[in-house]
């Protein structure tokens, strides 16, 4: 499995999965994990993006708790462990690790110097924070959790942010969705889409709530967004 090690700002280092396209130089996308670690789902997303012409890097954000976590959404025990990791996750240190990943991405072999982020679930929240706290050239947030509590940072968004919101998201209640959409609707750098009738993780292939129609539409919007901002 192709990996690199990235130095953390406060000491130590962490693994990141890497997938590369056939042709370089190319833009880099930092893929930000769900609560299940850098598992097969995340690696498949990286590989698909690489086949579309992007270098991809998916860092292990849970390394401070347990390096190399790779679990699924297929059992109660794995869900329990995932939420344990989520609840123990230090967001501030995660932001720092992602900033270091973006730095590494700009100089990785084959990079054209442009870097975007794309995150799912927990990663969707972190992609929003990359929009407010990093110099990433663009950011994509899929069903990010807790963003309604971070709207005070929206004035710091300088580069384009694309958001995909599941209308029936059990982890982002309707009131939270309304707050997010109202708080960001006039921001010139934010494009937000709500997908009716779908639940959290509607784009996770093989997941309980996977919805092909919504996932395809979100993918099309994401592809156009990345082409416009990273090519």
Could you characterize the architecture of this molecule?
The chain is of the alpha/beta class and 231 residues long. The chain has a single domain (3-230), classed as Rossmann fold, CATH 3.40.50.1820. The protein has helices spanning 40-51, 76-88, 91-107, 122-133, 174-184, 212-230; strands at residues 3-7, 13-19, 26-32, 55-59, 111-120, 138-142, 161-166, 190-195. It has an eight-stranded mixed sheet, with helices on both faces. Strand 1 and strand 2 (13-19) form a beta hairpin. The chain starts with a strand and ends with a helix. The model has no long low-confidence stretch (mean pLDDT 96). InterPro entries: AB_hydrolase_fold (IPR029058), Dienelactn_hydro (IPR002925), Dienelactone_hydrolase-like (IPR051049).
Helix and strand string, N-terminal first? EEEHEHHEHEEHEH
Number of alpha- plus pi-helical segments? 6
How many domains comprise the coordinates? 1
Q: In terms of per-residue confidence, which ranges show pLDDT below 50 for 5 or more consecutive residues?
A: none
The top level CATH class name: Alpha Beta
Largest sheet: 8 strands, mixed
- Helix content bin: 25-40%
Shape: globular
CATH topology: Rossmann fold
How many strands? Answer: 8
Strand content: 15-25%
Classify the secondary structure makeup into a structural class: alpha/beta
Question: CATH H-level name... which superfamily?
Answer: Alpha/Beta hydrolase fold, catalytic domain
CATH architecture: 3-Layer(aba) Sandwich
Average pLDDT metric: 96
Question: Could you tell me how far the N terminus lies from the C terminus, measured between alpha carbons in angstroms?
Answer: 27 Å
Strand order of the largest sheet: 1-2-4-3-5-6-7-8
Radius of gyration: 16 Å
InterPro entries: AB_hydrolase_fold, Dienelactn_hydro, Dienelactone_hydrolase-like
Domain Dienelactone hydrolase: 14-228
Protein name: Carboxymethylenebutenolidase
GO molecular function: hydrolase activity
